[in-house]
Amino acid sequence: MSETGLDIDEQLKLARAQMYEGRFEAALGSATAILQSASENIDALYMKAVCQRYLGDHDKALVTIDQLKSLSPDFGRAHQEEGHIFKAKGDNEAALAAYRRACQCNPVLQASWKAQADILEAWGRRDAAMEMRGQEQRIAALPKPLVAISHLLHEGKLIKAENACRHFLQNNPHHVEAMRLLAEIGSRLGILEDADFLLESALEFEPDNVQVRIDYIQTLRKRQKFAEALQQSEILYRRDSANPVFQSLYAIESMQTGNYEQALDLFDKVLEKLPQDPVTLTSRGHALKTFGRHEEAVLSYQNAIKSDPGHGDAYYGLANLKTYRFSDDELRLMEIQEQANRLSYQNRIHICFALGKAYEDRKDYDTSFGHYERGNELKRVQSRYDADQMTAELKSQITACTPALFEKQSGKGCDAPDPIFILGLPRAGSTLLEQILASHSQIDGTLELPNILSLAHRLRRQKQASNDSLYPEVLHDLDADQLRTMGEEFIESTRIHRQGASFFIDKMPNNFRHIGLIKLILPNAKIIDARREPMACCFSGFKQLFAEGQEFTYGLNEIGRYYSDYVELMDHWDTVLPGAVLRVQHEDVLDDLDGQVRRMLDYLGLPFEQACIDFHRTKRAVRTASSEQVRQPITKASVDLWRHYQSHLQPLKNALGSKILEPQQ
Q1: CA–CA separation, 310 vs 386, rounded Å?
Q2: Measured between alpha carbons, how far is 313 from 584 in angstroms, rounded to an integer?
Q3: C-alpha span between 244 and 259 (Å, rounded)
């Protein structure tokens, strides 16, 4: 309670009323009072900045906005307000950049589209201004409840957005834009099956709705239903094969299904229409990297940077090659970009991680760590990761998956011997193990398949009447038919990723959480735990920017705790499923490649093949951060890299505790 006796919500309501009445001095006083007891209140900071602008205190308003952006980087109205402040100061170029960032964060900010149109018209850029006007008019035509729901969605208030959207759909059950919004909310909550169903249904009502189809493609891609995503992107491409947006979508989906030649041809078509488009050049670089065309990938990334020196994804594309070394000029350019105020939040994250790698290569480890730490801090602000919640989730596996469970469910499931699961933590050497084994004539390498995680999610929500998860306890209640069907479904749904070998690899690292489920539905599956020395593994994860997921890596304490929880759970699996998991220590592979290859093949029941030793000569697409490294012979260059940073790593050591001292077997 404040001195006035009002709680925070009541104080915010009062400040908002004062602001809307034009009583900016009073509203500023109310917002400031709120911040004295709740210094990180987003709404109060936003109102404070608005009032400061109206009162002419533009520099103070910008300071407040910087505070707000540091707390909530994707808060679109903060960027919009920054645009208003710059416009009031007469800096239209900075204002335009801020309005663009606002619309990237929240595409229903009508005032930002209008302001962009006004600025572009004043500059004589009428075609671009018309495009902005079109967006402004599109938002104006939407029902007001959907605009409000969109604001909730893009401000991260997902549960409120979901409830409001479901309420709207109860009264308007076939409203396609509402269905699209609910699907986007579901996607952000990780409920991809529901998003998939909603978008498929929406397309039945409006098959010509381009945005719905694009959202559907992106959802299918997230679910790694690549054949279906390709089919949907081809529909758009056939509709207008000269449209660069459709060409780009078709290129991305062609790449996902392994047709790199077609993808690259399509990217080239986009570049004919949009020469030097940095996004397309970067996507093309990613395709070339995955395909093993290193030098061409480098050139494509470099061209993206020439086109847009602030395009962070291209810098990180170069850094993520692992073998690339930035020039002095590139390093200076990254520093200039990172220190400026014009970068989008995501571009800043990419550049921070790229700078960390650049200084690492120069052996300036203190400066390198500063950039890695900054990138992780920025990424952590975006994250909703909760270490306590993850610990509880992993402990629930230990509680539920008892010897009694496996005794009760013994002899059930699908008896297919095809799958080989390589799991553990990211950056633990799993890509190297996959490349070694996929070099065998009887084993296909595939992807980090989402199928087991999706199945666990489905079980978690099955017949759920409350917010309490039914999984993994529900494993006790599944009958033989259900377990067999789930196993058969896994085999069938992953067949598209195979090339015809008898066995195939699923390299999703997070599957270690679900070994109980795997052994119930696929009792003959083989499981390899890729284990790496804890300090090296955790620090390697900390300095890696992942495309999505793996949010536990963006903090030294968080990743240390996760490693400890992982080891505890793997110890449990060893106890209740003795002999089911083969542990392969990364350092042992580096020391004795031949011995570890033979050990893995013996476990899999396969004959030795020299190609597994010569894995770096195997030609195949590799889609992880280690793609360039596994195309080289074995090296120990990064084994002790973490020691150069150890003066900064005490929080990691504290979180790991005794795990640092335990011998890894």
Answers
A1: 32
A2: 33
A3: 19
The pair of structure tokens assigned to 628 is 């360039």
Cα-based distances in Å from 579 to 307, 512, 586: 55, 15, 19
Q: 467-475 — which CB contacts under 8 Å span 24+ positions?
A: 469/396, 472/396, 472/397, 472/400, 472/401, 472/516, 472/517, 473/396, 473/400, 475/400, 475/401, 475/405, 475/409, 475/516, 475/517, 475/520
* Cross-strand bridge partners of residue 420: 505, 526
Q: Which of 209, 277, 216, 207 is nearest to 248 (CA)?
A: 277
Mean per-residue pLDDT over the chain, rounded = 92
Question: pLDDT digits over 33-51, tens only?
Answer: 999 999 999 999 999 999 9
H or E segment to which residue 14 belongs = helix 8-20
pLDDT tens for residues 531-547?
A: 999 999 999 999 999 98
* Cα 447 to Cα 570: distance, rounded to the nearest angstrom: 22
Listed in sequence order, the residues at least 6 apart from 664 whose beta carbon sits closer than 8 Å to its beta carbon are 531, 532, 533, 534, 583, 585, 587
CB atoms within 10 A of CB 428: 28
Fill in the amino acid letter for 176: V
- 560 with 656: CB under 8 angstroms? yes
pLDDT reported for residue 466 = 40
How many Cβ atoms from other residues are within 10 Å of residue 1's Cβ?
10
**Sheet containing strand 503-506, strands side by side:** 443-444, 503-506, 419-424, 526-531, 581-585
Please state which of the ranges 242-246, 303-307, 344-348 shows the lowest mean pLDDT.
344-348
Bridge partners (DSSP) of residue 443 are 503
Number of Cβ atoms within 10 Å of the Cβ of 533: 16
**529 bridge partner residues:** 423, 583
Q: Kindly give, in sequence order, each residue whose CB lies less than 8 Å from that of residue 444, ignoring residues fewer than 6 positions away.
A: 438, 497, 498, 499, 500, 501, 503, 504, 505
Handedness of CA 41, 107, 312, 258 (dihedral sign): positive
Amino acid at 172: N
DSSP string of 420-475?
EEEEESTTSSHHHHHHHHHTSTTEE------HHHHHHHHHHHTT--SSS--TTGGG
In a 3-state reduction of DSSP, which class is residue 533? coil
Q: For 499-652, where are the E strands, in sequence order?
A: 503-506, 526-531, 581-585
Contact 656, 568 (CB under 8 A): no
Please give the backbone phi and psi of residue 18, each rounded to the nearest 5 degrees, phi first: -60, -40
Distance CA 18, CA 44 (A): 13
The b/e string for 571-590 (b: 16+ C-beta within 10 A; e otherwise) is ebbbebbeebbbebbbebbb
Residue in 416, 499, 494 with CA at minimum distance from that of residue 449: 494
